[in-house]
Amino acid sequence: MLELDRAHAGAQTIAADAKARTNNVYMLGYEFAGRGEVDEARKKFKECVEMALPADELHAKCERRLSGAGAQ
Q1: What is the pLDDT of residue 71?
Q2: 59, 29 in Cβ contact below 8 A?
Q3: How far apart are CA 32 and CA 27, in angstroms?
Q4: pLDDT reported for residue 30
Q5: Residue 68 pLDDT
Q6: Using an 8 Å Cβ cutoff, are 58 and 23 in contact?
Q7: CA–CA separation, 15 vs 25, rounded Å?
Q8: How would you classify residue 68: left for phi > 0, otherwise alpha for psi between -120 and 50, otherwise beta?
Q9: Which of 2, 28, 40, 51 has the CA that lies 20 to 30 A from 65?
């Protein structure tokens, strides 16, 4: 795994963009779940788990959703 140089402006931009895309995927899953579209929601939560770093809060949220603990 590559390590982020937190002092590098370009790296900060890339990391922020990746975080925003991951959040968007999570929100899509959340919206699908709210409409009862379980299969689509699970796809988005799985995608979010694959995108987010294990230490990221979204990774944990999506894993909980996939396990059923965070289901609505």
Answers
A1: 52
A2: no
A3: 9
A4: 95
A5: 84
A6: yes
A7: 15
A8: left
A9: 2
Residue 10 has a pLDDT of: 84
In angstroms, what is the C-alpha Rg of the chain?
Answer: 14
pLDDT along the chain (72 residues), means of 10: 69 87 96 96 96 93 86 50
Buried b (16+ CB within 10 A) or exposed e, 26-59: bebbbebbeeeeeeebbebbbbbbebbeeebebb
Contact 22/29 with Cβ under 8 angstroms? no
Distance CA(43)–CA(19), nearest Å, equals 18
